[in-house]
Amino acid sequence: DAAIALFTADLRLSDNPVLRGAVRAGRRVVPLFVVDEGLAATGFAVPNRAAFLADCLADLDAGLRERGGRLVVRRGDVVEETCRVAAETGAGEVHLAGGVSGFALRREERLRAALEADGRGLRVHDAVITAVAPGAVLPAGRDHFAVFTPYFRRWSAEALRPVADAPRALRVPAAHSEPLPSAAALTGRPGTLSPALPEGGERAGRRRLDAWRRGGMAGYADRHDDLAGDATSRLSPYLHFGCLSPVELVTRARAGRGEGAEAFVRQLAWRDFHHQLLAARPDASWHDYRPRHDRWYEDAGELAAWRAGRTGYPVVDAAMRQLAHEGWMHNRARLLAAGFLAKTLYLDWRAGARHFLDLLVDGDVANNQLNWQWVAGTGSDTRPNRVLNPLTQARRYDPEGEYVRRWVPELRGVAGRAVHEPWRLPDRDRRGYPEPVVEPGDTAGRFRRGRGLV
Ligand code: FAD
Fold first, then answer.
1. Is the ipTM of this complex over 0.95?
2. Ligand 1 near 331 CB (within 6 A)
3. Strands 121-125 vs 91-97: parallel, antiparallel or unpaired
4. Least buried of 279, 297, 406, 454, by fewest C-beta within 10 Å?
5. Global pTM?
6. How does pLDDT run across 224-239, given as a tens digit for each residue?
7. Is 224 in the pocket of ligand 1 (CB under 6 A)?
8. CATH pick for 2-129 out of 3.40.50.620, 2.40.440.10, 3.30.420.240, 3.40.190.10
9. Residue 378 annotated as binding?
10. 10 Å Cβ neighbour count for 441?
């Protein structure tokens, strides 16, 4: 009469079909989180995300305790530990959120086989991690959508399941638990922690969501690309770890109406779009979705300059320094920093994507890798040869140069938009800021000249 709710990327109590499913199926529920050594071995658990995850687990445990439960924490192989807890507590069923990455799919498969061998069942819940489950809408004769606009049309017409409240009270069987893990215990690798990370957890996510719905969302359609305005929701880490439910976000935004809400819902659909793409093509996490180039430029020094925010292109460097400091970057900044690596420097997108994954607190295989492929022109996009000119982008999205001055202290003394072209300034005004790594007039040159199309 017990069931396990195995938490993965759904670290919340509200609107969580996994937890509700377990509560409904069994009179007693074991809320379980396994610190998966298999995941640690992949190198994905970098310090920034580990810190956020530690907050999430502490917050989840606190919420469960308020309801008479607690989080059971184990460490080891996720499949073995889950089976062990099931045997110890007599749980007949395990409830799990359907995932999309190769890692999640393998975990699900192994778990099903191991549980069935023990005479137990696995229940996989859809529309937990995304608003619309991958594969729920399909184009005729294909297993996924490759183009966003037709996907969005179908996605928008899809009825969402009703939003459910958190369970009020829980009955939990006795089960051994390790102490809540610290950030250090969750990270499988060394690396620096960004000094200005957001606080993790459902409650912190909900505070941000409430502020967003009261303040930011209405102006989102007009202001989402304004780099200095910083007028996006910053909900991405909470979505990545499942502290907030995408079904709830879409439902509530639609109820609020208005241009801002519509534009916000469209971005949430982009998130689902990339998830359904990765679910159908798990290889696209590191392999070109559509191979278009047979070679990339190689230059370790340029890659290092890009990572360090020392390319000599202020808007690109501002973006990279924001990433290092906050573990987060504005979407427009991601687009132009990624475009600079893949199109201007013409370096392999995988090196850039790896660096983003090392630092982003919302670092996500589906969103990061497929956005990178979109920018690099190896993705499913219909305009793969688009090149974002960093100077044009800077003038358009940081017209006064405020974003650059915020993140590039060397150039703080330069007024207005002149800050975007430091190569025109006298040396003394540049204060050690580097020369541009490629000629300012030739930001698309390598990509156009060096393209070795497959
Ligand atoms: P908002 O503008 O408030 O948007 C709301 C939500 O919609 C976001 O939280 C996010 O969940 C979703 N969203 C918005 N834009 C996109 C998009 N283009 N693709 C998918 N989902 C989107 N997003 C991640 O969550 N993780 C990543 O690892 C990631 N890597 C990226 C790498 C590159 C090169 C690029 C160009 C984009 C990447 N994005 C990634 C998408 C996007 O930049 C971030 O989701 C967004 O900047 C997060 O800020 P926000 O929450 O304020 O977004």
1. yes
2. yes
3. parallel
4. 454
5. 0.97
6. 999 999 999 999 999 9
7. yes
8. 3.40.50.620
9. no
10. 8
